[in-house]
């Protein structure tokens, strides 16, 4: 296990980058704690896999350093870093049995036969493959092969970090949930530093202690699932986390109020006069459809998704989403919306502004 430090780290796939836009991974300075479980979350092409491959040693950064427990490993091999990595598509030895695939990393390190047998059996039970240990991998399905890859990544107890690059892509949905649960159990039992790359917010939020949200080659926020939901530091986090994502409403802000198309909205904090691209960010869960005071909306449709209703409405020409409890009655007289004042965030040029107590 290791504390991982990203020191002035950046990477470009161009031989001579001349501007920030040339960098697939923009400058990062972060410490990732020993023994934590992290998820790297973001859309395709945002730099997640690039960062993971730099951490593992498969890719050398254009600038900066990677340190494990304070030791510079920037030019060290994956082997020297003592890393286990599981890729998006299964990497198995087809001519070997499931048992031999799982045992391979341990036998390579000269572990005793009894330890290998015990460890392989435990991992096989964890991934639900104890009944096919004697079968060759060649005849197995893609999701079964990926379970072998996962198992081989988890079989060693002495690794500095376990890295997972979208490992559940080929796994069926029910098994995905089980494997995520098992990975979390493994983390709690052995305390490995784990980094899990995904574009799926459900995978990230159910797996990780801390979620690292990336956008356009940059880390825009690191936080717990609750922090990402309640206080997104960047509008991308608000949009990407949650279903539906955060409502973003153009406004002018000064003091304890905002103005949206001439209508006033009370804020929970006090702000200086803000310039630039100013928006209010409000989660659909903190918007209420009412008959009383508030901003005027026109309801377009109501989607009943079982646990709650999603109301799609029009606010001054822009769509706004509202989440209402399952049993909520929605009448034609409900033409206004009100916000939970404490849950309104203010953004300038996409970054959240910290106000003062009102």
From TrEMBL:
Q: What is its EC number?
A: 3.6.3.-
Q: Which InterPro entries match?
A: AAA+_ATPase, ABC_transporter-like_ATP-bd, ABC_transpr_FbpC, ABC_transpr_MalK/UgpC-like, Mo/tungstate-bd_C_term_dom, NA-bd_OB-fold, OB_MalK-like, P-loop_NTPase
What gene makes this protein? sugC
Q: Which GO terms describe its cellular component?
A: ATP-binding cassette (ABC) transporter complex, substrate-binding subunit-containing
Name it. Trehalose import ATP-binding protein SugC
Pfam families per the UniProt record, alphabetical: ABC_tran, OB_MalK
Q: Which family does it belong to?
A: Belongs to the ABC transporter superfamily.
Q: What class of enzyme is it?
A: hydrolase
Report the SUPFAM superfamilies cross-referenced here: MOP-like, P-loop containing nucleoside triphosphate hydrolases
Q: Does the keyword ATP-binding apply?
A: yes
């Amino acid at each position: 296990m290791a504390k991982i430090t990203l020191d002035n780290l950046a990477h470009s796939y161009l031989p001579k980058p001349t501007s920030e836009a040339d960098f697939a991974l923009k400058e990062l300075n972060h410490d990732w704690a020993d023994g934590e479980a992290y998820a790297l979350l973001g859309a395709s092409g945002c730099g997640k896999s690039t960062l993971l491959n730099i951490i593992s040693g498969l890719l050398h950064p254009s600038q900066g350093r990677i340190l494990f427990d304070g030791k510079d490993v920037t030019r060290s091999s994956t082997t020297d870093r003592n890393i286990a990595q599981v890729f998006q598509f299964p990497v198995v030895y087809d001519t070997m049995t499931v048992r031999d695939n799982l045992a391979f990393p341990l036998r390579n390190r000269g572990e005793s036969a009894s330890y290998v047998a015990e460890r392989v059996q435990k991992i096989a039970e964890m991934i639900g493959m104890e009944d096919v240990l004697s079968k060759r991998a060649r005849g197995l399905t893609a999701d079964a092969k990926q379970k072998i890859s996962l198992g081989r990544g988890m079989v060693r107890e002495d690794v500095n970090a376990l890295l997972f690059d979208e490992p559940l892509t080929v796994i069926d949905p029910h098994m995905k949930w089980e494997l995520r649960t098992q990975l979390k159990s493994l983390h709690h039992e052995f305390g490995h530093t784990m980094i899990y790359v995904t574009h799926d917010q459900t995978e990230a939020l159910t797996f990780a202690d801390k979620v690292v949200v990336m956008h356009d080659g940059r880390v825009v926020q690191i936080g717990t699932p609750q922090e990402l939901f309640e206080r997104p530091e960047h509008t991308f986090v608000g949009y990407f986390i949650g279903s539906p994502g955060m409502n973003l409403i153009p406004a002018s802000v000064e003091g304890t109020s905002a103005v949206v198309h001439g209508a006033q909205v009370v804020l929970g904090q006090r702000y200086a006069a803000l310039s630039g691209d100013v928006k209010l960010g409000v989660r659909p869960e903190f918007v209420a459809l009412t008959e009383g005071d508030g901003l005027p909306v026109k309801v377009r449709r109501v989607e009943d998704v079982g646990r709650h209703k999603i109301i799609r409405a029009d606010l001054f020409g822009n769509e706004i989403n509202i989440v209402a409890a399952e049993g909520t009655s929605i009448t034609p007289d409900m033409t206004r919306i009100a916000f939970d004042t404490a849950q309104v965030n203010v953004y300038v040029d996409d970054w959240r502004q910290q106000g003062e107590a009102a």
